[in-house]
Design a protein that fits this description.
The complex is a heterodimer of chains A (about 220) and B (about 230).
Chain A: H1 2-9, H2 12-46, H3 51-63, H4 66-75, H5 77-81, H6 87-113, H7 116-124, H8 129-159, H9 171-182, H10 185-218
Chain B: H1 2-9, H2 12-16, H3 18-50, H4 55-70, H5 73-82, H6 84-92, H7 100-125, H8 129-137, H9 142-172, H10 184-195, H11 198-232
Helix pairs in contact in B: 1-11, 3-4, 3-7, 3-10, 4-7, 5-7, 7-9, 8-9, 9-11, 10-11
Classes of the chains: A mainly alpha (about 220), B mainly alpha (about 230).
């Protein structure tokens, strides 16, 4: 147990700093994914001329492995688009892009599940297009897709381990630094793995709790 | 700026190295095939443990599923490659080292076994009790019931989900380059180190993977829809 104290507990500041970066990147990526997903989904559904573009982007983000996408965004985008200028930005951008593709499809399923009669009813009650969307459609979409949205966050956290490859100092990269200093991978890597598993487990537990509560409160069907 | 765009869309360099890149892709496929068989068999084992009569078995099965479903695949890959050989070495008092390919197969196989276990369990629990009772009434043993009644139905029911899991798994094989399995991404970075031209090569890799996985998932979507209609009919 002495080793655990020396290698893990005494290094907790380094590991926690890494965890902080992981949480920061994931939070930004998650926000970007929700915004991007919404944008892609609405473009796909309601902006007819841009529809093929939106479909292509959604498919491209979903069907390219995250590691490949990360390297592509980190090394090709800065030259071509002049952005992202740091690896930190490249990290959350790549994670966000991939999840935005998945979330766009989640939102679309949610929007298409709202019965058209409700929209007609809202129109005949004198609501505008925007009002109908924000007051009738969107609240139901948020409720019904809440579990998938939380699930997408766990996917982001899991994929975020890869940003250590482009030298973002996240938990994974901090623990690999410690391994390179001490040459004792057993304790450090096991602790890191346990930390990640516990973190992702807690998020999905919170997601399940949220889904149950929503179902109880609003009588939604299980999804 | 448009020069950079032109450069990244000029895939002639990617094409020039097609032989070595194709070799890499074959490694992706090999890792995928081996890891998929590990995931299927370990997943089935874990699912059977989760529905076992004895609670310690159930508990182990649940632990297995929760650990591997919540584990990032990259940390598992690193852990299996750098920690597991040391632990085994301590146990048998001999120096053990894993070939990167072996580590990749074990890590991906076990991570995805968690997902497959859940798919199997959902399928098994959806079998009507009457089917099992009928089997018992015919004097079939529990094992025979599993192989002749339960599993054939489970496989049919879980096929669409399993195909989606296979696609995720294929995507995950790209990270094995990080422990030096010579897959497509690994060869791409080798060529980049030599030629110093990341733009066309990373773009080419992204497009290649996109095309393969896009075609696979379109195929799976098409197949699943037809399959569901056939099963439900």
């Amino acid at each position: 147990m002495g080793n655990w104290e020396r290698l893990v507990w005494n290094q907790r500041d380094v590991l926690l700093a890494g965890l902080g970066v992981t949480i920061e990147v994931c939070a930004i990526a998650f926000a970007a994914a929700i915004l991007g997903g919404l944008l892609l989904c609405l473009t796909r559904l309601y902006v007819a001329p841009l529809r093929p573009v939106a479909i292509f982007l959604i498919e491209f983000f979903r069907d390219t492995p995250i590691f490949v996408q990360l390297m592509w965004v980190a090394y090709v985008w800065p030259e071509v688009f002049g952005f992202p200028n740091t690896f930190f930005n490249a990290g959350w951008l790549a994670l966000g892009l991939q999840s935005s593709g998945y979330l766009a499809e989640t939102f679309r399923a949610g929007i298409e599940a709202v019965p058209p009669g409700q929209r007609d009813a809202a129109f005949s009650a004198g609501m505008s297009q925007t009002q109908t969307f924000s007051r009738i459609v969107m609240p139901q979409v948020v409720l019904s897709s809440a579990p998938s949205i939380v699930n997408q966050f766990t996917v982001i956290v899991k994929s975020s381990t890869l940003i250590s490859v482009i030298t973002v100092p996240d938990l994974m990269s901090q623990s690999q630094k410690l391994v390179n200093v001490w040459y004792e991978p057993i304790e450090i890597l096991t602790a890191t793995a346990a930390l990640y598993i516990a973190f992702v487990f807690l998020i999905s537990l919170a997601g399940k709790y949220l889904a149950d509560r929503l179902r109880h409160r609003y009588g939604l069907a299980a999804s | 700026m448009s020069d950079a765009l032109k450069q990244s869309l000029d895939l002639s360099m990617f094409w020039e190295y097609r032989a070595i890149l194709l070799q890499g892709l074959i490694f992706n496929a090999l890792v995928f095939l081996c890891a998929a068989s590990v995931a299927l068999s370990v997943g089935l084992g874990a699912a059977l443990m989760r529905i076992n009569r004895f609670w310690p078995m159930r508990w182990i099965g649940t632990l297995h599923v929760e650990v591997f479903r919540n584990a990032p695949d990259y940390i598992m890959l690193v852990w299996v490659h750098f920690v597991l050989p040391l632990l085994i070495g301590m146990l048998i008092r001999r120096r053990v080292e894993f070939h990167p390919f072996v580590s990749a197969v074990i890590a991906l196989g076990f991570v995805y076994s968690g997902y497959f276990a859940e798919a199997f369990r959902a399928g098994i629990q959806a079998i009507p009790q009457g089917n099992l009772d009928a089997g018992r009434a015919f004097g079939m043993s529990e094992r025979l019931i599993l192989w002749r009644i339960t599993l054939p139905q489970v496989v049919r029911r879980m096929l669409p989900e399993a195909l989606n899991l296979f696609i995720s798994m294929f995507k995950a094989t790209t990270i094995v380059s990080l422990i030096a399995v010579p897959d497509l991404m690994y060869n791409v970075s080798m060529v980049i180190a030599q030629e110093m031209r990341p733009l066309p090569l990373y773009t080419g890799a992204a497009l290649t993977y996109f095309l393969i996985i896009f075609l696979l998932s379109v195929g799976v979507r098409h197949f699943s829809e037809r399959w569901r209609r056939k099963i439900l009919a």
